[in-house]
Amino acid sequence: MLLSTSGAASLAQAADAAGLCAPDLKVDKETLAARLLAAYPVSTAYLAVGEHPAPLSSYRALTSWLFKKRAAEKTEGGACKGDGCNVDHIAGDLQQLLDGKDAQFRPTGGAVAATFFDADNRSSLACVRSDAQLSLPYAAEAATTNAVPATVAAAGAAGPATASTAAQPEPGWMDPVRVRGNPDQLSIDRSNQAAYASVERAHLTLANDDVAQSRTNDIVVFAGYSFDKRPMNGNGSTYEAVPYVGFKQNRVTNYNGGAITVDTTRTGQAGVLSSFHFAHPGSANTEDLTARPDYLVNSSDGSRLLTVNFTYTMVRPGILNDFIRWNNGLAFKPILIGQSRNGTYLNRGEAAVYEQHQDFIRLGAQAGFTLASTNPRLPFDFTTTYTGLKALQGSRSIHYWKGALTYNFNQNVGLSLDYSDGLLPDTGDAERKWGLGIATKF
Fold first, then answer.
1. Cα gap 83→193, rounded to integer Å
2. Residues 6+ positions from 408 with CB-CB distance below 8 Å
């Protein structure tokens, strides 16, 4: 297990010291990487972001991946916080060993932390005696706090970060592409680990019920392209626009008694999400405001809906809309997002739904949480939210609950068990469904 409990890191290291030094006194890189990750854990939310999938079958390969990911963040000017600081501590403590600062270990000359765990790296580290133990100065702090001060982490990792910077590729044309299960979340960049971990995934679900003699497929996908992202001031505040298209389909085929009936609900959407990110000098607190005009076509009931939607998100590091790392292998993120949904029907559709399709103004919030594993060998996460919107105009207030448990194959694809119940926030149409299927986000 990668995560050690608070105050127990040194005990675990002492108990396993024999595994660190081989009979020939050479340090096993896989064991060393595992020991460093146990002292400085990272969450699956952090592993879920990167140009290449995080390798979860090897501690050594994973640590090498983390070094390259963190170096890329530094080239973009990103100060460390939380998981990023722990990666800096791993690099800093490893470099101390490779520089010969710990008398218990003897390095080969010229080794650098940034490439030490690479598959083709031949540098080595040897124990002076068989009972040598790691001395990790920041381990206790990393196990008991949510984030390590950026100045401390940067001082410990200045050397190795520079060595791996040149290896990072330039951003590609695919970087602005976003695929999600919720259009309000298309502005969330993959580099924003805390926010990205909770975005709803696009999914394809297929189910067959031999008892009810029915077959169901459910598709939800929104695809956008971020462009025109630019600073609004010198404090780090930004604006970006994300035009998008979306498609939803729920198709149920019943073949009871030989007679086949098909019930299909299908909608298409198009719009533009405008996102304003507000940063403040001398503070890690941020706010995000989005405005999203959207045109929805329901091909099942013939209705046409034009909406303007707003969200407001306050981010308070380690408190709200950000991860709080626990010492039991989990990280917890409280979610609270203000929302406003405002729509007018250009066509109310068929007679069966005509009366319920009324123009509306709704105001409220979405609340919930994400629970994510910090153990890369158990890459699960669970997100549940409740959306409550009061109807200021129109007769339908919104009460909508949704939950998703996902096993992540990599940072982009997972197997997800979903359940939702209530009135959809966008349209007010009733929904109650569950499904198991492939889910993706990027």
1. 9
2. 44, 48, 379, 380, 381, 414
Structural element, H or E, at residue 10: helix 9-15
Q: Which of 60, 66, 97, 93 is nearest to 80 (CA)?
A: 66
Q: What is the 8-class DSSP label of residue 320?
A: B
- Digits of tens for pLDDT over the chain (442 positions)? 333 333 333 333 333 434 788 887 888 888 898 888 888 888 766 776 555 677 877 888 899 989 988 888 777 665 677 788 888 889 888 888 888 888 888 887 667 888 899 888 888 888 888 888 888 776 655 544 333 333 223 333 333 333 333 333 445 667 789 999 999 999 888 777 778 888 899 988 876 656 556 777 889 999 999 987 888 887 778 899 999 999 999 888 887 767 788 888 899 999 999 999 998 887 778 899 999 999 999 998 889 999 999 999 999 888 899 888 787 778 899 999 999 999 999 999 898 888 888 999 999 999 999 998 877 778 899 999 999 999 999 888 999 999 999 998 887 889 999 899 999 888 888 888 888 888 888 8
Report the C-alpha gap between 342 and 319 in whole angstroms.
30
Return the closest-CA partner of residue 400 out of 438, 369, 355, 367. 367
Residue with tokens 């909770």: 198
Please tell me the distance from the alpha carbon of residue 391 to that of residue 397, in angstroms, as a whole number.
5
Report the candidate in 61, 55, 62, 11 with the shortest Cα–Cα distance to residue 41: 62
